């Protein structure tokens, strides 16, 4: 995510938990963060980062040496923290009171997305139904209903592998892909799922264009 117009920065996360912030102009490393959750790093060695968002700067802050990061791990540990960039990549000043919350007690988060206005975040994963969070209040505002049991009475949990907001101007319309070859469209303003379509024979791992979805090219 490019965070500013002047000297834009890009955030890159590693599965081991480290994060790098680089300049998109010359590729220089501006910050290397071993872990945003350093105090809890030892207990989360098997909890990889699955989502990273670098918040955009306001016009008045475009030249600031600070940036705000939102991360999410496989086990649903979310953290939002501001950092000050130092003279060297390792000289980073951390926020003393970062915002942290848990999105799920179990299961795995596999996909996430922040809306265009950076007010809401969308998450989904293995046995984790698509859900939307208010980033200002750090509260969940909507969760998709679990699928019903089949005709044999067997419940199969959904595994979401990709998700995004359907429109840049509307956080209420969502698109999510599953490992069972489905693309699901949601409208949370109606509190219900809109539709579900089969999509080929492979897991859905990338977000499809709005034109293709609207055209019904599945």
From TrEMBL:
Residues 191-211 have a biased composition (Basic residues). GO terms for cellular component: nucleolus; preribosome, large subunit precursor. GO terms for biological process: ribosomal large subunit biogenesis. Residues 189-218 are annotated as: Disordered. Signal peptide: none annotated. Gene3D superfamilies: YVTN repeat-like/Quinoprotein amine dehydrogenase. This is Transducin/WD40 repeat-like superfamily protein. It comes from Sesamum calycinum.
